Amino acid sequence: MSDQQSLPPNYFYHQLPNGMEMVGQYMPSLSSITLGFQLDAAVINEPEDKAGLAHLFEYMLFQGTKQKDARALNEAFESLGILQEIRRRDDEPMSRIFDLVRASFFKGSAFARLSLGTTESVQKLQRRDLRDFWQARYRPNDVIFSIAGKFDWDHVVEQVQNLFGDWSGQADPSPTQHPAPTSDIVFEHQEGKQEHLGLMSPFPNYTDPDYYAAQVISEVLGGNMASRLFVEVREKRGLVYGVSAGLLSNKYMGALRIYAGTTPEQGHECLEVIVNELRKLEQDGITSDELDRAKVQLMSENVMRGEGSGARMGALATSWKYEHKLRTIQEVKEAIDAVTREQVLDVLHRFSPLNPLTVAAIGPLERDELVGNTL
Q1: Which of 12, 73, 335, 362 matches a 20 to 30 Å C-alpha distance to 51?
Q2: CATH number for the 11-164 domain, one of 3.30.830.10, 3.30.70.330, 3.30.70.120, 3.30.70.940?
Q3: 78 pLDDT band (50/70/90 cuts)?
Q4: Which CATH superfamily is domain 184-371 in?
Q5: How far apart are CA 33 and CA 31, in angstroms?
Q6: Residue 370 to residues 184, 189, 193, 197, 228: CA-CA distances in angstroms?
């Protein structure tokens, strides 16, 4: 009943006649399952003048719109917390800084858009917009059904076929994006006692052979309380109340993303120290001790995630979507363990964390006060 395609034991794949794909991982030690659906119905698929439509539709799936007129929909938006979520984002610079840096980093592509939209754009959305989005994007040929836990695969396939087998239609391919980041500095002036900084530079994405080396770099730089940024910016100098680094990945490219929350008085020194750490990282790579600690941390996190059906369900869907394969936990552990200092240095030469570098700031500082001659 299943087309296994040489999958590892306890991993499953099946495609329904309507094009819907199914992936699964049997986890006999569990007594529960987690399932989910993944499809291309995101910000890059919404019309440019309908900002927030994809995110709103996600909420409305659980409500239904058959009996709702325009007024009822607006009331539903409020009850769902959509507009409150937008207002909360607008009131929280720590959240807004990522929108600001992403908008500049992905300038010229749909990834630069606000995923939540704005209060005005969401309030303008009509029932027909939701219906049109459903008809255009929610089609079985674009759906991945993922399940992890203790289940009978043949029974799952039978049930999904019964429930979704008569679902028909074809979604068009998502529009191709061509992000081309350039070095940029963007500011949003806001009076107050805080200065929020966001930095982004291109980095390997999920499908890049060096993705796990990039994870190691991110972990060493700002992934934990022993990371370089935490030690140099916070512990030694007391310049921030929060600092971290992480990876962002989509189909077209990845990014190294850094956040720092500081005060206006310490903003310039904070940025200067971060840039100096990026410069040292690019020139010298990482030490053997840092490599070993990062591997232990990443593999520990991988093992913990691997014990839960929710994390595995999401990992299966992501792996199939981007690689058309089901990456096992063991494969991930081996990929992390195989990272070398030489590979890390090669990544840092392929993807300079300083060129191009996008910097965004929200706070009272002007450009010269914050940046000076740092960049």
Answers
A1: 362
A2: 3.30.830.10
A3: low
A4: Metalloenzyme, LuxS/M16 peptidase-like (3.30.830.10)
A5: 7
A6: 14, 12, 14, 10, 21
